[in-house]
């Protein structure tokens, strides 16, 4: 199982935005440079995050992106769903009632979703902030 690169960039972007002072925005150029991406590519990722209600954008020269929810409300799963969607990872091609393989795969997926839903990105942001202070 593998998530797309867009999910990787989205997770890093949201954590970076969480590290900003409350109310401040970060431009797409800065976000793209931080991850060594083209602003055009990252804009597509940012659009999905915005449509999911995780971030908001402010147009103009002093505009940019910022977190639109309370930081303690955004989980890993929220960002993953914003980028990847909420489709099942496994689709049994042999349709018969009580398929043990399908049941096992769905249970494993539910366990993974529960774990990712319980992990908040703000915890990662706090850890990153602590490391930055130690290095200073």
Automatic annotation (TrEMBL):
<dbReference type="InterPro" id="IPR036390">
    <property type="entry name" value="WH_DNA-bd_sf"/>
</dbReference>
<dbReference type="Pfam" id="PF02082">
    <property type="entry name" value="Rrf2"/>
</dbReference>
<dbReference type="GO" id="GO:0003677">
    <property type="term" value="F:DNA binding"/>
</dbReference>
<dbReference type="InterPro" id="IPR011991">
    <property type="entry name" value="ArsR-like_HTH"/>
</dbReference>
<keyword id="KW-0238">DNA-binding</keyword>
<dbReference type="InterPro" id="IPR000944">
    <property type="entry name" value="Tscrpt_reg_Rrf2"/>
</dbReference>
<dbReference type="InterPro" id="IPR036388">
    <property type="entry name" value="WH-like_DNA-bd_sf"/>
</dbReference>
<dbReference type="GO" id="GO:0005829">
    <property type="term" value="C:cytosol"/>
</dbReference>
<protein>
    <submittedName>
        <fullName>Rrf2 family transcriptional regulator</fullName>
    </submittedName>
</protein>
<dbReference type="InterPro" id="IPR030489">
    <property type="entry name" value="TR_Rrf2-type_CS"/>
</dbReference>
<dbReference type="GO" id="GO:0003700">
    <property type="term" value="F:DNA-binding transcription factor activity"/>
</dbReference>
């Amino acid at each position: 199982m593998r998530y797309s690169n867009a999910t990787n960039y989205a997770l890093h972007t949201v954590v970076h935005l969480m590290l900003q002072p409350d109310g401040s925005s970060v431009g797409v150029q800065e976000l793209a440079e931080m991850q060594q991406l083209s602003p055009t590519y990252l804009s597509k990722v940012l659009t999905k995050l915005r449509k999911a209600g995780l971030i908001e954008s402010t147009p103009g020269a002093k505009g940019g992106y910022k977190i639109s929810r309370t930081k303690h409300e955004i989980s890993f799963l929220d960002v993953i769903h914003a980028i990847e969607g909420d489709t099942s990872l496994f689709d049994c091609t042999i349709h018969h009632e009580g398929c043990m393989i399908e049941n096992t795969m769905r249970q494993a997926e539910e366990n993974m979703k529960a774990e990712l839903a319980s992990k908040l990105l703000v915890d990662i942001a706090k850890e990153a902030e602590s490391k930055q202070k130690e290095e200073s």
